[in-house]
Amino acid sequence: MNRFIIDVRPGRSSLIEDAVYSALGLVVIAALYADGRAHILGLPDSFFTPWHAFMYGGLLAMIVWLAIMGRRAAIRREGRSIFVLPAGYAFSVVGAGLFVLGGVADMIWHIVFGIEVGLEALLSPSHLLLFISGGLLLSGPLLAQRRDVAPPGSGTDKRVPAMLALTALTGLAAFALSYLSAFTTHAPEQSMPRGPEGSDAHILAEVLASEGLASFIVTSIVLVVPTVHALRARIWFPGALAALITAVAVLASGLTGFQNLESVIAALIGGALLDALVLVLRRSVRERALELIIAAALPLVVWSAQLTAHAIRYQLRWSEELIFGVVLVSALVSVSVILALGSGGGRGARRETREPEETTNTHATRGATE
Predict the structure, then answer these.
(1) Residue ranges making up the domain that contains 315
(2) Which of 109, 143, 176 is the last residue of a domain?
(3) pTM (2 d.p.)
């Protein structure tokens, strides 16, 4: 009997399987932010907390569901193997292994060096390993969509699970860099006294302002890279950018107990405007031009909306140079990053138009053989 345990030839996951996996990933990210909120607000903390249960339970559920997906793929392949790795989920399997390794490393780190406090928790080597493993775990539906392209409205279109996975990955990156988040910074509300150059007051004021400027620039990159990837991978659909940007803003706001809901409203408005811009331009400009336009427009629109919302609720104390400058510099840096990443649309376009034909030909061949 020719039977083997793992079939190295990739199988194909279903739309429902990818959707469930993406939903579990979002649960894990929400629990991660709930755990961060508990640390920031000084809530009673131990290993046995609801957010830890959701976070580690969600991760375990992702691993179990991945195993179920592999077994279902093997059954669809007429039972010739016990487990077939779904296409696009190889990094997820690696992430599962690294997560176990990172959990052991984190336990050893705590025993040797104690529990991290504040920024230490985001920069601990064992936690960084957990972030990396989590990113690999979350990537499955996003990479699976690249392997299984279906026309919109066909009933097997995987853009929604892929977009959910991309949102979860963006949320993870935003959490890892939450000490520089434009959605939580209050730097624009801090005045910058014009003291003598080199004085302690001047240095302190510039340090605080620099932290605020860096927060806008870093968060721009965190949002622009996945936004352009959504366009490049053709997983964008109307409302996708509004959902992604608003989700990151909601999660960030949750870290501080939802004290800055104006940022969430601004993110929703800015994301909706970006979706409208993509809808208008996607058929009239080249893909590369659209990527660069959106890379520039995202900081211009979202941060303008957020600073306006801050001005309504609080009093902005930054000078006009800082207010206009941070928006423009964020846009310039975002465009520079996308330029540095290069263009990847051509190869993806050829792949997406070819794979459905190959799938059709394969089915036709099977039908003729049968």
Answers:
(1) 183-370
(2) 176
(3) 0.86
Report how far residue 166's alpha carbon sits from residue 304's, in angstroms, rounded to the nearest whole number.
Answer: 24
pLDDT of residue 350: 38
Average pLDDT, the chain: 84
SS3 letters across 30-99: HHHHHHHHHHHHCCCCCCCCHHHHHHHHHHHHHHHHHHHHHHHHHHHCCCCEEEEEECCCHHHHHHHHHH
Dist CA 63 CA 14 (whole Å): 17
Same domain for 264 and 207, yes or no, is yes
Task: Work out the average pLDDT over 72-79.
Answer: 79
Q: Are residues 166 and 238 in the same domain?
A: no
71-74 — which CB contacts under 8 Å span 24+ positions?
Answer: 72/14, 72/17, 73/11, 73/12, 73/13, 74/7, 74/11
Residue 108, SS3 per DSSP: helix
| Gap between the Cα atoms of 274 and 231, Å rounded | 12
Domain boundary, last residue among 176, 192, 207: 176
Length of the chain: 370
Q: Cα dist. 151→1, 48, 344 in Å?
A: 39, 45, 20
C-alpha 166, offset from chain centre: 5
Q: How many domains does the chain have?
A: 2
